[in-house]
From TrEMBL:
Its main location: cytoplasm. Keywords: Cytoplasm, Hydrolase, Protease, Thiol protease. This is Pyroglutamyl-peptidase I. It catalyses: Release of an N-terminal pyroglutamyl group from a polypeptide, the second amino acid generally not being Pro. The lineage of its organism: Eukaryota, Metazoa, Chordata, Craniata, Vertebrata. Belongs to the peptidase C15 family. GO terms for cellular component: cytosol. It is found in: Cytoplasm. Monomer. GO terms for molecular function: pyroglutamyl-peptidase activity. Signal peptide: none annotated. Its EC number is 3.4.19.3. Removes 5-oxoproline from various penultimate amino acid residues except L-proline. GO terms for biological process: proteolysis.
Length: 181
């Protein structure tokens, strides 16, 4: 919500959605949002009670979902996409994004993770990565006030997403150059 107030740079259309903590809604909603907007990038943000930093997740996992959601449901297969790869990495180089954002001197610590937790955050991330061939990102944030304010988190998300877009645009320039030769 804070990011929606702050916005992103002028050439970026920002669409903010709240995704319920429900496996079946995620399976329906994420593909629908990709189809509706055909975005350059989807960035998911989830609150983690265990997080003490703003954490950039590198990948989503397909199997191991045993926790019940807010509807007391759990996929019988315990996976996101039957037959899908075990792990899908984001096309965004999270190490580069983390270094760049850390160099900005914001009053927020940014770290990297390879395990989004095998619950709805990881499930959502994998579903989006699968849908987008890796053009998704997931950011875990700590609960408000533990230790960051909404304003601090909003500014951090703004900086992170702008760096992600920059990294994505530059990696696409390289890909396009290689295809032309």
């Amino acid at each position: 919500q804070e990011l929606e107030k702050l916005g992103l740079r002028d050439d970026v259309d920002l669409h903010v959605y709240e995704v319920p903590v429900e496996y079946q809604t995620v399976q329906r909603l994420i593909p629908a949002l990709w189809k509706k907007h055909s975005p350059q990038l989807v960035v998911h943000v989830g609150v983690s009670g265990m997080a003490t930093t703003v954490t950039l997740e590198k990948c989503g996992h397909n199997v191991g979902y045993k926790g019940l959601d807010n509807c007391r449901f759990c996929p019988g297969s315990q996976c996101c996409v039957e037959g899908g790869p075990e792990c899908i990495d984001s096309v965004i180089d999270m190490d580069t994004v983390c270094k760049r954002v850390s160099a900005l001197g914001l009053d927020v610590t940014v770290t990297i993770s390879k395990d989004a937790g095998r619950y709805l955050c990881d499930f959502t991330y994998y579903t989006s990565l699968y849908q987008s061939r890796g053009r998704s990102a997931f950011i875990h944030v700590p609960p408000l006030g533990k230790p960051y304010t909404a304003e601090q988190l909003g500014r951090a998300l703004q900086a992170i997403i702008e760096e992600m877009l920059d990294v994505l645009e530059h990696s696409e320039d390289k890909i396009n150059c290689q295809h032309e030769h």
